[in-house]
Amino acid sequence: MNTIIYTSVLGFICMVAEILNLRKVIIPVAVIGLAAILGLTVMEWGTTATHFNDMVRTDNFSVAFGSLAIIITGLVIALSSDYYKNEQNHISDYMAIIVFTLVGGLVLLSYSNMAMLFLGIEILSISLYVMAGSRKYNTSSNEAGLKYFLMGSFASGFLLFGIALIYGVTGSFHLEAINTYLASATAVSPLFYLGVLMLLVAILFKVSAAPFHFWSPDVYEGSPALITALMATLVKVVMFGAFYRLFSTAFGNLGGYTNWLIALVAALTMVVGNLTALQQVNVKRLLAFSGIAHAGYLLLGILSITTDATSALFYYSAAYALATIAAFAVAIPVFQSAGSELVSAFNGLGKRKPFMAAMLTMALISLAGIPPFAGFLAKYYIFSEAMANGFFALLLIAIVSSIIGVYYYFKLILAMYTQPTDESVDVKFPTVYVVVAVLCVLLSLALGLYPNPVIQLF
Amino acid sequence: MLTLLLLLFPLVASLVVLASGNKLSAKLALLFAVVELGLTGYGLSVFLQSGPESFTVFQEWITDPKISLNLGLDGLSMLMVLLTNFLLPIIILTGFNRVIDNAKAYFSLILMMQFALLGVFMANDGLLYYIFWELALIPIYFIALNWGGPNRVPVTLKFFIYTLAGSLFMLFGFIALYHLNPGKSFNITELYNMVILKDNQAWLFWMFFVAFAIKIPIIPFHTWQADTYKESPTQGTMLLSGIMLKMGTYSLLRWLLPVFPEGVAMWTPLIMGLCIAGIVYASIIAIMQKDLKRLLAYSSLAHVGLISAGIFTLNISGLEGSVVQMLSHGVVVVGLFFAADIIYHRTNTLEIDKLGGIRTAAPQFNTLFLIVVLASVGLPLTNSFIGEFLLLLGVFQYNYIAAGIAGLTIILGAVYMFRMFQRVMLGKTNQLTVNFADLHWNEKVVLWILVIVIIAAGVYPQPILAIAEPALRIILDNAVLN
To answer: What pLDDT sits at residue B428?
Structure first.
C-alpha cells in the first residue's frame, strides 16, 4: 500500500517540478525516488496487510512482482534521460505519466477487489494511451495512440461487463468472496461463466494473447521506442501478475472450465506469435511478436496454478523483462542514428560496435531460451510446471514454436555479423544505454547461473 | 579439485585470450591449450593410480529443480577429455601461418568450445549436462558464421536450428524424467536405477535419440552435415568432426543405453538398420563427391554410422570398438581436414578434378597424408584398424548379415579414399600444383604428431581398452535387460 502512495507522490513531484523550473533534476529524482521506493517495498517482505476495507492487499506476491515492476520502470526512466534530451519542454509530463503507469501496475499487483482491478487497468492503460501518442507531429505515433485507445476502451468495456455479471451472480466484487461462493454454491449460474469469459477476453487483450493480439504490433511500431520498451516489459509483467492473482484467488475453485480455453489460447498465441514474427522486417514489430510468443509461454504458467507456479511465473517475467530491456537499450540508439527501425539498420553492427553487438546477441540468446542465460531456466521452469500438470500436447507445441523462435532472433544476429556495414552511419551509444544494457545482461546471466534466491521466494 | 581445474581452465584461458591482442592471441591460445593438455596428462596419471573416485565433484547448485554441480570422470569420460585436450592444441596450431581476422575472438571461441565440450563429458547431472550440451553450440555457430565460406549464412543457420531442435526434444525428455523420478532429481545414478514403464521408455527413447542422432549424425538426420563441414573454417570443421560429433556417440553410451534399456531393446533393430544403411549410403555418396571437403564429410558420416552401430550391438566388443574408434576417428579426421586445408591454402581449390601431381612437388606432405589416409581406411598397425575390427566383431555377434553389410565400409572406404588420393596427389602436375610448397614448420609438427599417435595407438591399443573397459561394463550392466 505504501508503495502505491509513495509512487503516486513521486508522480506528483515530477509534475510539480515543471512549475518550480527544476526540469534538469527530474530524471535523477525519479530514479533515486524509485530506488528508495524499491527499498521500502522490499522491506515489506514477509508481511501481509489489507487496506481500505480490504480493497488492496499487500503480500509476498505483490512485493516481489511490485519490485520487479519498479526495477523495470527505473531502467526505462534511466534510458529516457538521453532519449528525451531534445524534448526538455515535455520531460516532466513524460516522467509523471511513466511513473503513473507504474502506479497502475502496482495497483494491479495488489488488488483484492474487482473494482481495484478495473482501476488499476485504467490507470495503466490511460497513461499508455497518452504516451503511445506522445510524438504529436508524428502520424504513426498518433495512429498508435488512437488505435490503442479505441481497442483498449473496447476491452475495458468487456472487463466491466464481465465484472458486472460476476457481481450479479455472486453479489460481491471481492476476490475471496467470489472464491467462497464458488466453493459453496451447488449450481453456478451460467451468467457467471459468461462473466469469466468476458473478463478473460479483456485480460487476454491486455497481455496481447492471440487472437486478441492484433493491436500490439501496430501500437509497438508506432509508439516512441522507449514507450514500446515500457509496454513490452512493464505492462506484460504486471498484467500477468494480475491475471495470476485473479485466477489463484478468485477462480481457484472454478475447476477445469477455463483451462481448456486458456490452453487453446496459449497454443494459438505461441504458434501465431512465432510464425508471424518470422516475416517481420521491422525490429519493433519483431519484438512485439516475440512478446506475443512469450505471452503464450507465460500462459502455460497461468495454467499451472494448481501446482503453485508463482515462482516459475515470476522467474520467467524477470528473465523476459531483463532481456527485452537490454535489447531495447541497444536497439534505440541504432534506430536513432540509422533513422530506420528495420533489421537492416543493424547491418554490420558486429564490426562497428562489437561490444554492444555482443550485448544484443546475449539478450537475444536469452530470449531464445539458450543457456547459460536466465531465459533458458525460465523456459525450463514453465515447461516443467506444464509437464507436472499433464499438458503434454501443449508442451510439444511450445517446444516446436520455440525452435521457430530461434530463427527470427537469429535474423538480427545475422544482420549484425554477416551483412556489410553502411559506413556513412555512425552509431553512438550514450553511456546510460551501455550501462543499462550491461546491467541487464549481467543480471540475466547471474539469474541464469544462480537462480536460487529468486526461485525460492515463493 | 583437479576436475574443476581441468574444466574451468579453458574458460579462464578463453577470457584472457579475448582480452589479449590479435597478434598474440594464437600463441597465447596454444600455450593455454598445451598447459591444459599437461594438466590432463597429470590427471590421467592420477586416474591410473587411484581410479575414478578421486575425480568426483559434488556441490549443490540449484535447489528447485534439484540440479547439482555433479562432475566426475570414469574411464569413458577420461578418454573423451583426453581426446578433446589432445586435439585442441593441434587444432589451434593448424591456425598458425594463416590469415585470420579478429584472431583473438576466433581463438577465444575455440577455447570456449573446449570448456563446453569438457563440461559435456564430465557432467553427471542431467540438466548440467544439458546446459553444457547447448553451450557447445554457441561458439561453434559463431566460428562457422564469422569465419566460414561464402555460403555460410543459410548453412550455419540450418545447422544451428536443426541441432537446437534436437536438443529441445531432449529437454522435454529430461523434464519428463524429472517428474517420473520419485527422487525428483537429474542425478545420473538415480536415473540409471529408476524404474520407467515400458510404454514411457518407448517414446522417451526417441526424445533423447533424436538429439543425439542429429549431432552424430545418423541418417536421416544428417542433412546439415556436409554443407556445414564444407562452409566452416578449417578449425571449425575439425572441432565439429573431431570432437563435437563424439558428444553424440558419447551421449548414446552415457545417457541413452543405461537409462532406457527397454526402449533400447525395443528400437535397436530399427536403429541398427538406420546405422548400417547410413554406412553404405554415405560411402556411395562419398565416391561421387567432386569436392574434397565434402568427400571427407561423407566419409566421416560412414565412419560414425559404424560407431553408432557398434554402440547398439550391446556387447562389449561393440562398445569397446566404438570407444577406440571415436578416438581414432577424432585423430584421423583432423589430419584429413588439415590436409585439405593445406591443399586449399596453396591452390585455392578443393575440386578433386583440378588437382593432381602434388606428390612430385611436396614429397613429405605426400607421405604424411598417405599415412593418414591409410589410417582412415583402417589398415592394420594404424589406430583405426583395431577400432573397426572390434566394431565389426561386435556387429557380427549381433547379427552376421548386418556385419556383412557393415563390412562393406572397408571396401567402399578404400575405394573413395584411394581414388581421391590418386587424383589429388598422384599423376601429372598441372598449373595449380606445380609450385606446391612443401610443409611449413607448424604443418609438419601437426602432421607428424598425428602420424605418431596413429601408429602408436595402432601398435599398442591396450591402454585405451584397459581404461575404457570398467566404465563400459557398468554401462552394459545397466543397458542389457536381464
So the answer is: 83
**In chain B, which residues have their Cβ closer than 8 Å to the Cβ of A384?**
65, 175, 178-179
Nearest CA-CA distance, residue B134 and chain A, Å: 7
> Contact A140/A228 with Cβ under 8 angstroms?
no
Question: Do the Cβ atoms of A387 and B175 come within 8 Å?
Answer: yes
Split at pLDDT 50, 70, 90, the class of B235 is very high
**A414 in contact with chain B, both atoms CB, cutoff 8 A:** yes
Instruction: Write the burial class of residue A256 (CB in 10 Å: 0-12 exposed, 13-18 middle, 19+ buried).
Output: exposed
Do B160 and B141 contact (CB within 8 A), yes or no? yes
Asked whether B217 and B301 are in contact (CB, 8 A), the reply is yes
Is B178 within 8 Å of chain A by CB?
Answer: yes
DSSP bridge partners of A282: A342
Strand duo A56-58 + B57-62: pairing: unpaired
Judge whether A380 is closer than 8 Å to chain B, CB to CB.
yes
CA distance A445 to A448: 5
Q: Which three cell numbers stand for residue B259?
A: 537409462
In this predicted structure, the answer to whether residue B370 has a pLDDT above a threshold of 90 is yes
* Dist. CA A103–CA A70, nearest whole Å: 9
pLDDT at position B482 is 64
Q: Quick check: A372 contacting B, CB < 8 Å?
A: yes
CB B143 within 8 A of CB B232: yes
The closest CB to that of B161, out of A407, A417, A452, belongs to A407
Alpha carbon distance B62, B64 (integer Å) = 6
Q: A410-444, pLDDT tens digit by residue?
A: 888 888 888 887 777 788 899 999 999 999 999 99
pLDDT at A136 over 90: no
From A365, A402, A418, residue closest to B145, measured CB to CB? A418
Residue A255 pLDDT more than 70?
Answer: no
> Nearest by CB to B131, which of A372, A395, A407?
A372
> Distance (Å, rounded) from C-alpha B50 to C-alpha A123?
68
Contacts of residue B48, defined as CB under 8 A and 6 or more positions apart, other chains included, come to B467
Residue whose C-alpha cell reads 578434378 in the numeric block: B353
Per-residue model confidence (pLDDT) at position B35: 95
Contact B63 A456 (CB under 8 A): yes
Q: Which residues of A touch B63 (CB under 8 A)?
A: 452, 455-456
Phi, psi of A351 (to 5 degrees): -85, -40
pLDDT band at B409 (very low <50, low <70, confident <90, very high): confident
Lowest-confidence pick of A34-43, A193-202, B273-282, B473-482: B473-482
Are residues B62 and A417, on separate chains, in Cβ contact within 8 Å?
Answer: no
The CA-based diameter of chain B, rounded to the nearest angstrom, is 70
pTM: 0.90
Q: Of chain A residues 302-341, which have a CB less than 8 A from chain B?
A: 311
DSSP state, B244?
I
Is a pLDDT exceeding 90 seen at residue A186? no
Task: Report d(CA A317, CA A237) in Å as an integer.
Answer: 6
CB contact under 8 A, A383 and B172: yes
B64 touches chain A (CB under 8 A): yes
Using a CB-CB cut-off of 8 Å, the residues of chain A touching B160 are 406, 410
Report how far Cα A189 is from the mean position of its chain's Cα atoms: 34
By the 8 A CB rule, do A198 and A162 touch? yes
For B165, the closest chain A residue by CA position comes to: A403
Confidence band for A210, pLDDT divided at 50, 70 and 90: confident
Nearest to B138 among A370, A383, A384 (CB): A370
Kindly report the backbone phi and psi dihedral angles of residue A133, in degrees, each rounded to the nearest multiple of 5, phi listed first.
-95, 20
Q: Which pLDDT belongs to residue A411?
A: 87
B46 in contact with A, Cβ within 8 Å = no
- Only one residue has cell 555482443, namely A358
What is the pLDDT at residue B205? 93
